[in-house]
Amino acid sequence: MAMIGRVPEFESKKEDFETYLERFERWLAANDIAAEKKADVFLSVLGPTEYGLLKNLSKPRKVTELTYKEMTETLSLHFKPKPILIAERFRFHRRYQKEGETLTDYIVDLKRLASTCEFGQFLNDALRDQFVCGMSGEAYRKRLLSEKDLTFKQACEIALGLELAYKDTKELTERADHSSAGIHGVGEKQKDKPQRGSFHSSFAASSKSAQSFSARRKMICHRCGREGHQPQECHFRSAVCHACGKPGHLKKVCKSSKRVGKAQLVTATTEELSASDDAFELFTVYTAQGQKDGLFLQLELSGKTVAMQIDTSASVSLIPESVYKELLHDCPLQPVEVHLSSYTGDTIPVLGEIQVPVQYNGKKWTLPLMVVKGDKTPLLGRNWLQKIKIDWGKIFSLKQETATQPSLKAVLDNHKDLFRDGYGKIRDFQARIRVERDSKPIFHKSRPVPYALREAVEKEFERLQRHGIITQVERSDWAAPIVVVP
């Protein structure tokens, strides 16, 4: 009798043993292989490497002395040992939907991980909870959380339906835009022909106007990467790129740069992205620096004292990975769709976000805190400063050194030229700034100044210019921003 189907030799590098054994036993059943011949048939489909492995595992007994059950059990224990339950559940609960991963692939992998977790009768509840909490679409999660008595099957059906609806809507929108572009082209061709009546001419004019507005709205400026304006109207048309040194565009849209651009603007590529998915700038030059630089505030974070540098120009508060592992590892790290960049344009890798209990001056809060890669200085940004009322008077207080009146008067009398009103000048000396021969000019854009401080800043500029400390120029290839301290 002819054999049904064919089972190739088992090779552990191409297929796991459990899956191969299932296919092999189905083949034995389909061909009515007798039980006493199963061991011989099984040995005949083992590759040379796997046969030698079974031979070594069965010593001191010979392979030919083993039964079919003993052979399969020996190889099963070798290729798939009994997993550690805690580790398997840890992998399951750490599984989140990856960027670009479809919900179908995410569901399949969750089921695979759950198969070794021994959830028992709580399997569906565990799958449902991790599926909802781990998906990347915020809009999908909100929709599922609004359902009462939600099951894992219902959650999968609703989420897959939303994903399919989004893809279809996106495809239809693209087709509609393509069709409207075709209508616009027809309208322009007919514009040169004489028309009878006003219907055709008004149709062509309205079509052209609507399409022009749509194209203007969707056009992305090649100078700054933003929408809604023409390149010749861009505010950055005279800016100098920090990557290539050429004028006319910003670093984030530079085509010659291989570095990741500054995330000053993040546009939602999918409709399910929520308003919290954003980009933040840290205007602090975020480099390794000593604790003595800047103003630091002692805060109680989850019961541990952490010195955080006050930075009113940082959009968010953050801590480095080293501080998180040492002091705040008990706070679970959650993924977050946030991009951070320093003022110099360097991207700051974000590991995630934690919700940490904060205590200061007898008051308590639970606030979000970004965890970034590296060993940097913890920053206290504006999102925390809006909640925490800091005693600024205490921070800026100075410890005055007492001096005897006679000694101070003697110093002033002996050095009248130094302490007279006004500013002095260095004479018979010319300063030189040396730069590398092939260095390119760097022009940093100005930092935003709060409206309440603009008048004071302008007066200070006028005072410095009046005393000859600074001089106004029409243009410059080099520029560095000032830091305004209230």
From TrEMBL:
Entries under InterPro entries matching the protein: DNA/RNA_pol_sf (IPR043502), Peptidase_aspartic_dom_sf (IPR021109), Retrovirus_Pol_polyprotein (IPR050951), Znf_CCHC (IPR001878), Znf_CCHC_sf (IPR036875)
Matches recorded under SMART domains: ZnF_C2HC
Residue spans of biased composition, Basic and acidic residues class: 186-195
Domain CCHC-type residues, every copy: 221-234, 241-256
PROSITE patterns xref list: ZF_CCHC (PS50158)
Organism: Cirrhinus molitorella (mud carp)
SUPFAM superfamilies given in the database record: Acid proteases (SSF50630), DNA/RNA polymerases (SSF56672), Retrovirus zinc finger-like domains (SSF57756)
UniProt feature, compositional bias: Low complexity: 198-211
Region (Disordered): 177-211
Keywords: Metal-binding, Zinc, Zinc-finger
Domain of life of the organism encoding this protein: Eukaryota
Name of the protein this chain belongs to: CCHC-type domain-containing protein
